[in-house]
Amino acid sequence: xxxxxxxxxxxxxxxxxxxxxxxxxxxxxxxxxxxxxxxxxxxxxxxxxxxxxxxxxxxxxxxxxxxxxxxxxxxxxxxxxxxxxxxxxxxxxxxxxxxxxxxxxxxxxxxxxxxxxxxxxxxxxxxxxxxxxxxxxxxxxxxxxxxxxxxxxxxxxxxxxxxxxxxxxxxxxxxxxxxxxxxxxxxxxxxxxxxxxxxxxxxxxxxxxxxxxxxxxxxxxxxxxxxxxxxxxxxxxxxxxxxxxxxxxxxxxxxxxxxxxxxxxxxxxxxxxxxxxxxxxxxxxxxxxxxxxxxxxxxxxxxxxxxxxxxxxxxxxxxxxxxxxxxxxxxxxxxxxxxxxxxxxxxxxxxxxxxxxxxxxxxxxxxxxxxxxxxxxxxxxxxxxxxxxxxxxxx
Length: 395
What we know:
The protein is an alpha+beta fold. It contains 15 helices and 13 strands. The chain is globular and about 65 Å long.
């Protein structure tokens, strides 16, 4: 009976996946071809990473291996849902750095065309947003149908076998649970480190007042070491000249990364500053007027998102450039009147020492081939992810 019930359930799910929801859809390869009034009516209430301005930067300075796709779902002419995704050509060398020749050969031969609901160059649920009146379960059913339609329409350019929806936190994972009926598998990734500042933190000194003396002294020691080394910190106004330097420092960090799914193009930081205006910040560490480290911050409503970073690795071995850059994010968040800082999913320990706490992050993954999809589930269930250390930095 258990086997029979499983077969019946699979047949039911198959019919469910191939039954139209009777909504109307608009698809586009560029944000500028959409009805922006309809798009913005939903995007502005959600994330700056879904804004017309942000996608204008991405399209102008897109990573070489990605291209954008967009969709709007309608009911009786009214927009209910917006979706932004990337089609990415992922090669083996983007995933691992092979040390042996035989592994290197296999790595070079591996290639996967992936449909990503969201954004490979940002962390967060930056691929979908619903109108307030749309039921959550129905919304995610619409997401599944849109992704299916995009995947099928791309056959002329090359088949897409793998689909990802990234990155879901908190109650979003339960709200999207219906994706399991469409053969998506839930995968846990490294946590996002989040620092809660609250309402009354208007300066870096206010933040220092939140810390226990042990961790406050660590922060002050890092600041002292940077000053002792003859470095200065400042908020930067970007130009084409500074963009060149920022990009070279960013590439030093990028080349050290274990995985490089999408590498930024030159001009991206300058584009962000031009399109996002006051919602974008860049802090630099300089010595004798030369930038030796920088970090970018994006204001997303009440959250300050720690974005891309770059620094001179040789100098960082002697002076704590990276740790000071993390502190500058908090300074920027206080200036921007943000209540939370999203530090991202790397270097968990130094962020924990600043008072950040881990927030679990998940994604949904699906492979077109059922047998492969089964193994995807088995493989991803056994992939380790980092756990943030417990720190009591905040009083």
